[in-house]
Fold each of these.
Amino acid sequence: MDKLSNILIVAGTHGNELSGIYTHKLIEEGLFIADRSTFSSTSVIANPTAVRHQCRYMDNDLNRQFATRSDATSCPSNEALLARQFIDKYASNNNQLIVDLHNTTSNMGATLILLSENPFYRKMGAYVKQRMPAANILFESHKPWNELPYLCTCGEYGVMIEVGAQSHGSLQYGTLELMKEMLTAVLDFVEKHNLNQLGELSNYTAYYYTQEITYPLDSSGMRQAMIHPTVCGRDFEAVKPGEPLLATFFGYDVHWQGEQDVYPHFINESAYSKANIAMALAEKQLVSVNKP
Ligand SMILES: [Zn+2]
């Protein structure tokens, strides 16, 4: 793979996720150094109106607008328009990596979300895991690149950093530190990749997204269950076959029906409340770094 010559650091894709927005501010003020000897970094706010209003989005989720170019309508939503402008400005830049910064209300610590399994990303996961052993590496590589709706997939290369748990609209010292630490590791990885200085990287365990679990609803759209107390707050901890995922209000539980252990994450993410998504599930796998 070619050397990367520019890193586009994106914050405020969701306007109420403050770790990225304040990382952007630190970069602008020279308090966080995002350049390296082999590349320069550009830091941008993706949805300034939502940032000003301190909300996730104005009309709809900007981070779900990038699967395909939406048809031109006479009255596009604020975010559809932003997505088009973003694509026009950045998507065709060569040798650019987009790093999109997010917060989650789920207890996911620092999670690097990789959307492809090509050797570059497998190595990035290995390097970040080596630098931050407590970090989670999550592959969402179940769809082809151009079918993924995320902002960071609008160009050739992109990843997301998720840090939490942090309430949207709030700013926590430890969560900002985790974001800075993971962003630093990604930037250092690119520098070493460019210099051919990655050296020996070890195989590692990562999570692979499989599905979402939604709440059962009654006829009026109210939930009939909550996250089970044995799962609540335990992102990336194993749930074995037959163990509960949800606790209904009727005294029985909803159990995991699969044949393998699963690893819930984005548990009780407040931004997914509207869609009644209780959690996402992943499988755990060993990643071979040197597989071609
Ligand atoms: Zn977000």
Amino acid sequence: MNAPTTSLPGGTRALGDSTVTRFGYGAMQLAGPWVMGPPADHDEALAVLREAVDLGITHIDTSDAYGPYITNELIREALHPYPESLFIATKVGANRDTRGGWPPARRPEDLRKQVQENLQRLGVEVLDLVNLRMGDAEGPRPGSLAEAFGTLVELQREGLIRHLGVSNVTEEQVAEARTIAPIVCVQNMYNLAHRHDDDLIDHLAADNIAYVPFFPLGGFTPLQSETLSKVAARLGATPMSVALAWLLQRSPNLLLIPGTSSTAHLRENITGAGLVLSDDDVAELNSIGR
Ligand SMILES: NC(=O)c1ccc[n+]([C@@H]2O[C@H](COP(=O)([O-])OP(=O)(O)OC[C@H]3O[C@@H](n4cnc5c(N)ncnc54)[C@H](OP(=O)(O)O)[C@@H]3O)[C@@H](O)[C@H]2O)c1
């Protein structure tokens, strides 16, 4: 599985034994409102996925909890049989309830079921990457992940998972996971305005582990900042473009998975992320989250 060259902004980077484009795609926004139910426009959802791959993106992030199940079903419908270069990352550790909540589901039997369901819905025999999602909708919570992560390690040894990662975690949980088995990435909330993980990103970069920021554009509440708007206006770019370009320049171990349900936004984000920010631009933008 290789993506040796790309014209996408950020180029490529190793993720486990694969090479992926640093500009990836997060599929969560393809489900209905608040990530529940089907998309408003089924054909456009399929078009976004196909366009992402046609434009050269080789890293897609998903979960069976999106919809639930809807996002994985769309990915399979749009892209199966998958191109050899495509790397699909999924995550386990939560279910959905009827009110759209994300109740944790991390007992060994829950995780085994979720891995089996991801395999089945995506239509693959081995999952490229499974992130163990800890914490809750408010963010990471302290506590041991050993039992849950150990179950994923067993599933990896059984040949159902190629790579492991952790998500929505504290730095202590990252360290704990790494005492149990190698991880290829950490997926946490991070963007221009939420920089809690600055030190973690640098520590992971030193150890050649990828960091995959979720909500790179602010998620359900798009990033809003006077400074961001000012820098964007000066550069003749959109605030979204500047936010993505800043992430790509923040550290080489950052892999982007911005979400969108629109082919127009997908193309706009790819073009925008290629913006080159000067040291002065970066210094000004750094004042937002500090
Ligand atoms: N591990 C976890 O716990 C966790 C949690 C949340 C998310 N994730 C992953 O992270 C990925 C990224 O997060 P996200 O999709 O929630 O948030 P995001 O990438 O920060 O933002 C997506 C939002 O920005 C809008 N948007 C995108 N491009 C735009 C543009 N050019 N102009 C205007 N609006 C634009 C989208 O609306 P449109 O659809 O209208 O473009 C969507 O509402 C998800 O897809 C998911 O795979 C993981």
